[in-house]
Inverse folding.
């Protein structure tokens, strides 16, 4: 079962193959075309220690991330040579440095006020980290906490789960449309087979891996 303990254990044991060592190419390609008003907030669910956090902040935006592991958050600040203030609140431990705020805690404890200034969600690794039976709760909670004007840049993966069980998990495009179409207009920006870029997954038996990038607009 992939639960909170699973992810905390992976950070503890440094089993973080999901971490990207460089800025995500889709973020670099599409973010400049989708950016909200300068200085507004960008929300990263399940943010880990993503280098994307610092890159977005350097573009002049306020970044809010949610992450279970203190190891991940403290590694982010150390690896980017950023000082931070650490404050314990009722629901989270808050780490803040200039225009970056990372909340250590459970995504499902977030409330509307936590994201009130956010105009964009960047979901690269959250949705695909959840098993199918856990995703309805994720969709519902995400929609309940986002401001009415908040758009989304979403990256998903799709593959034959008979060949590999995940994580990351396969998320059908049809599911994304079904769950989000009531709140967003959904635009497919690009789709490609990236299995040749992920040789370790081919080694475990995966024959194809479709990566899709979506822009969801209110």
């Amino acid at each position: 079962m992939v639960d909170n303990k699973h992810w905390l254990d992976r950070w503890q044991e440094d089993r973080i193959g999901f971490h990207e060592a460089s800025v995500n190419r889709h973020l670099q390609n599409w973010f400049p075309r989708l950016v909200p008003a300068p200085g507004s907030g960008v929300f990263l669910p399940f943010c880990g220690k993503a280098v994307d956090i610092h890159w977005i902040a350097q573009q002049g935006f306020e970044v809010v991330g949610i992450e279970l592991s203190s190891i991940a958050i403290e590694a982010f600040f150390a690896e980017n040579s950023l000082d931070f203030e650490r404050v314990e609140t009722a629901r989270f431990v808050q780490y803040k440095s200039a225009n970056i705020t990372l909340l250590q805690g459970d995504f499902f404890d977030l409330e509307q006020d936590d994201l009130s200034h956010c105009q964009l969600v960047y979901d690269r690794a959250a949705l695909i980290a959840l098993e199918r039976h856990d995703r309805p709760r994720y969709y519902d909670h995400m929609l309940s906490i986002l401001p009415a004007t908040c758009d989304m840049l979403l990256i998903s993966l799709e593959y034959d789960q008979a060949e590999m069980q995940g994580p990351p998990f396969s998320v059908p495009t049809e599911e994304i449309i079904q769950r989000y179409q009531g709140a967003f207009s959904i635009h497919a920006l690009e789709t490609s087979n990236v299995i040749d870029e992920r040789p370790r997954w081919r080694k475990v038996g995966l024959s194809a891996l479709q990566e899709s990038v979506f822009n969801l607009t209110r």
User: Anything to note?
Assistant: Helices lie at 4-12, 25-34, 51-58, 70-79, 135-145, 173-180, 199-203.
